[in-house]
């Protein structure tokens, strides 16, 4: 048989997947590994989906998505951030942020264009840039600034081939958020070098301290930003596969063209549920966020108490402690912790080189599970200390 695509062969398989294949075969594992809410989609949202099925809404929708949903998205963005997008041509409903990301990259990249990817970051970013024919250029951040990237570091990576900056705050895997002054400095770099910015704001509603800054709302930036957001995290809707992109109509038209030929539209029942989420989902969402906030404080205190230094994440649902004092690499630490104590965390280098020396602990699990995981981690650390003595 002829060989499969060279491009695809060259992209490494996700480090996380290998790990979770092992986890799924083991019994008794407490997983702080998966970046997925442990809540079920709130009932009123599920009910809206069921209602749509019962009423026989089983057809394709407009390629852009249901107009009623685009209107609800547009109203939401206006109310939350004061940024106004026409629901007719500036909003596209996608199959999760995952599809939005792929469309955004394919819509703007010419072969060889460079995309600055702020790390540590979601595992899909660099592969998606490569699949779209671009070259990912990593710009790191570190714990000395609580994983807030600097505009200076971004600017130092700009070349004549740079097309866009891709970033996501609140961050997966660090939980870092980017305060407004930092955002203003970064958009200045984008403006100066005439770059697009792809801002994945999927964790925006999971901001526990301070206000989320929406890049598109910064003065004069709306047309330059491709804003991606979705329903997976804030509304516990990962399985419904629904997201959206908002940008200037030219970019949205280009993204729509790809979407039209590859996906047609997002699933209609999920779109119906998303309308309900935006119209009436605020209170249940706030309850989930309050619970994540409790867990955040609990896990960060617990990690620091057992000797794994951890800065206080201000968003998303991840803690990103340093494991350097264990003397192990992130990969060794995660692997031994899994096999010896049955606790799954994700090695920090899965999210980029600068994540080495850390592990990602998702706190989308019950306090009881987090407590037991911390207890096992402490036992593991004591054992490592004895080994070294
Ligand atoms: N973006 C980030 C930063 C994520 O962490 C994830 C999922 O973990 C996604 C996008 C994928 O989101 P969706 O379920 O909307 O495709």
Q: In terms of per-residue confidence, which ranges show pLDDT below 50 for 5 or more consecutive residues?
A: none
Q: Can you list the ligands bound to this structure?
A: pyridoxal-5'-phosphate
* CATH architecture grouping of the largest domain: 3-Layer(aba) Sandwich
CATH class of the largest domain: Alpha Beta
Number of beta strands: 12
Strand content: 5-15%
The largest beta-sheet arranges its strands as: 2-8-7-6-5-3-4
How would you sum up the major sheet? 7 strands, mixed
Structural class per helix/strand content? alpha/beta
For the CA atoms, what is the radius of gyration? 21 Å
Report the end-to-end length measured between terminal Cα atoms: 55 Å
Q: How many structural domains are formed by the residues?
A: 2
CATH topology of the largest domain: Aspartate Aminotransferase, domain 2
Per DSSP, the total helix count is 13
């Amino acid at each position: 048989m002829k060989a499969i695509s060279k491009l695809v062969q060259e992209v490494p398989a996700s480090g996380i997947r290998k790990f979770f294949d092992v986890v799924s075969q083991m019994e008794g594992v407490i997983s702080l590994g998966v970046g997925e809410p442990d809540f079920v989609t709130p009932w009123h949202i599920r009910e809206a989906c069921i209602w749509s099925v019962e009423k026989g809404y089983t057809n394709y929708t407009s390629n852009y998505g249901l107009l009623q949903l685009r209107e609800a998205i547009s109203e939401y963005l206006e109310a939350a951030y004061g940024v106004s997008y026409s629901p007719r041509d500036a909003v596209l409903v996608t199959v999760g942020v995952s599809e939005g990301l792929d469309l955004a990259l394919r819509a703007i990249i010419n072969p060889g264009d460079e995309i600055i990817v702020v790390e540590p970051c979601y595992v899909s970013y660099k592969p998606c840039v490569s699949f779209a024919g671009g070259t990912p250029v990593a710009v790191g951040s570190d714990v000395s600034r609580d994983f807030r990237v600097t505009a200076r570091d971004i600017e130092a990576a700009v070349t004549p081939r740079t097309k866009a900056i891709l970033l996501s705050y609140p961050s997966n895997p660090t939980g870092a958020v980017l305060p407004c002054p930092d955002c203003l400095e970064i958009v200045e770099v984008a403006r100066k070098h005439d770059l697009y910015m792809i801002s994945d704001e999927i964790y925006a509603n999971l901001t526990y301290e301070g206000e989320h800054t929406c890049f598109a709302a910064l003065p004069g930036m709306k047309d330059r930003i491709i804003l991606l957001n979705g329903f997976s995290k804030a509304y516990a809707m990962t399985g419904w596969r629904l997201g959206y992109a908002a940008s200037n109509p030219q970019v949205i038209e280009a993204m729509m063209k790809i979407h039209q030929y590859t996906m047609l539209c997002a699933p209609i029942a999920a779109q119906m549920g998303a309308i309900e989420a935006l119209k009436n989902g605020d209170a249940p969402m706030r309850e989930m966020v309050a619970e994540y906030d409790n867990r955040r404080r609990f896990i960060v205190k617990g990690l620091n108490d057992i000797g794994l230094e951890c800065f206080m994440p201000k968003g998303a649902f991840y803690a990103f402690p340093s494991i350097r004092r264990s003397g192990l690499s992130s990969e060794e630490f995660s692997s031994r912790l899994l096999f010896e104590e049955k606790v799954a965390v994700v090695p920090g280098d899965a999210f980029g080189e600068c994540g080495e020396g850390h592990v990602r602990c998702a706190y989308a699990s019950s306090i009881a599970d987090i407590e037991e995981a911390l207890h096992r981690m402490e036992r593991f650390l004591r054992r490592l200390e004895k080994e070294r003595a």
